[in-house]
């Protein structure tokens, strides 16, 4: 064997060895990979669930209906003003008339007697609406004198556009004015004729606990019977307590009142003093109250709120109608908007109706309440209900949640936004009230946008828990479908939960 | 006679050859040596298993299995019995275990239920240990007539990692990667329309590849 042959054989041998090594390495890698990837550690879960035929959580009807709305069915007021601005259509004789910011609520009418050019020695301010076609009507105003004022009057006139020749007045005397027989703190009825002058036809009647600084509400019922002018006078203190009255004051005359307004006399020359007037109303019916009809039943409460948030008055119903006295504020608030509210017998809100800014609540109004119970189908777990629209905000129990006796469920509600149909007119919140009175946070929908899709959890027991809704559609003719899940958990950490789906249909009447 | 002798001889030889051929075996063999290490020596995928951080307070794995004994309704509670401890270690002076299996018993009522975090599945190891991949497989369906749905839902770090349909066996989600120190939370969603008992079994296969599922 030559040297060349020996070297060639060695090279071949090395190549073969290298190739074999690569092959072995590849095989080993492949084998190791195969083994590595195919080996599994095995673990397992065995599960057993025993399911009992118990409705752990269910829905039921609540005994109370939902209040849906309040609408005014009649108004007896012919005219009213709260004197936030100077009214039009009035006639002034003498004095200074302006708006004063210190009204009973908001501003008032200020009338100053400046002893110049007065008719019947008074400043007259006359509303120019002819009432001759009415044989009976009511006039009311709230009034308050200032220092040295002699007499402030609700007055009746036979003329407005030209100086009256006959005047009938109901004065509250704040001072004697230097006249014999005039007692401060009294109310009377007077008649003035251009030719014969002043004549007292009734009174004086003392005003109980008279305080010159107080606002007094004077309500006068006028009626014409034959040739007689008849006046009933009621005076109320700021708390609505009747502090003086004159019933059936009569004056016989061919003349009769056709216009109403105010008369002011400071009683002395060279003294300028003012009286303030507020809450003026002319009505064909008693303006001291408003009526609610078609209430759900006895035990409900109706309330009138003014635009400033003050409660004017409330009363609890004994049937399906209610008369609510508002003599403390006959032209409610500032004569604009305000609220009417209805409460359930347990004092929980049922309805809040906002009076639009173009309207007011005034004495003599009659309102009809609309209400209806939600329809609860426990088999299909659906609930259908009407709620308010416009200014009517419904508040009330939509349905009850019952929990299996002896159990406690930490429960919340979630709104399935994706599967619900929510129009942009819907404003609603949903919460849970437990039988013990605990309330969850709220599902919140504002103008159709879900701002919060879930409540917080509250602990529920028994059957007297309920879902509270509060809301309205912005206008009539809308409906919404809300898919709710009642998630009722056994633990406060909300981990072990039974889920009860409920479909809620809401619409306007 | 000679002619017959030859024929007989051929037949005898053929018979002998046939007999000898039938009795010949090619012999191969496999020698398997299985070495069972103690649970305290388990590493890598072997140190994966079930646990409850509430049942083993202080365990150095994420919070999981927090409702392993929670009340479902009335006085009824979830009960869980654990299988063999397959990985054991000490931490902070306390001994902890991961279990090969769990047997879960959940008393419920008709309706839809959600059982959150009834147990955990964790991987104990050091940073040097490899990641593992968990595959789940339904081995016994919860297909009883009154069960409308039954899903085992697996969460990792608060994020849903897989959903196992216990009625059909369908798995939504791929293998779940676990690094040492990570864990899964097991939830159950189930709905029954009437009284019934339902059983299921789900296998957890843990390996090192994300590309090959178990058979």
Helix content of chain A: under 10%
pLDDT < 50 runs, ≥5 residues of chain A: 1-13, 15-37
User: In percent, how helical is the residue content of chain B?
Assistant: under 10%
Give me the count of strands of chain B.
15
Q: What is the molecular shape of chain A?
A: elongated
Q: How many domains of chain B?
A: 1
Content-based structural category of chain A: mainly beta
* Major β-sheet profile of chain A: 11 strands, mixed
Oligomeric form:
heterodimer
* Interface with most residues: A-B, 37 and 65 residues
Q: Structural class, from helix and strand content of chain B?
A: mainly beta
Rg of chain B, alpha carbons: 27 Å
Radius of gyration of chain A: 40 Å
β-strand number of chain A: 37
Shape of chain B: extended
Q: What is the gist of this entry?
A:
With 509 residues, chain A is mainly beta.
Question: How are the elements arranged and paired?
Answer:
The complex is a heterodimer of chains A (about 500) and B (about 220).
Chain A: H1 3-38, E1 41-52, E2 57-60, E3 66-74, E4 77-81, E5 90-93, E6 96-100, E7 108-113, E8 123-127, E9 136-145, E10 151-157, E11 166-173, E12 186-193, E13 197-206, E14 216-225, E15 228-236, E16 242-252, E17 259-265, E18 273-283, E19 289-293, E20 301-305, E21 311-316, E22 322-325, E23 339-343, E24 349-354, E25 366-372, E26 375-377, E27 382-386, E28 388-389, E29 392-403, E30 409-415, E31 426-433, E32 443-446, E33 449-452, E34 458-460, E35 465-473, E36 479-489, E37 496-507
Parallel strand pairs in A: 19-25, 27-37, 28-35
Antiparallel strand pairs in A: 2-29, 3-25, 4-18, 5-8, 6-7, 7-18, 8-17, 9-14, 9-18, 10-11, 10-17, 11-12, 12-13, 14-15, 15-16, 19-22, 20-21, 20-23, 23-24, 24-29, 26-27, 29-35, 30-34, 30-36, 31-32, 31-35, 32-33, 36-37
Chain B: H1 2-22, E1 48-51, E2 71-73, E3 76-77, E4 79-82, E5 85-91, E6 94-99, E7 101-109, E8 111-123, E9 132-140, E10 147-156, E11 159-165, E12 171-172, E13 176-178, E14 183-192, E15 196-207
Antiparallel strand pairs in B: 1-8, 2-3, 4-7, 5-6, 8-14, 9-13, 9-15, 10-11, 10-14, 11-12
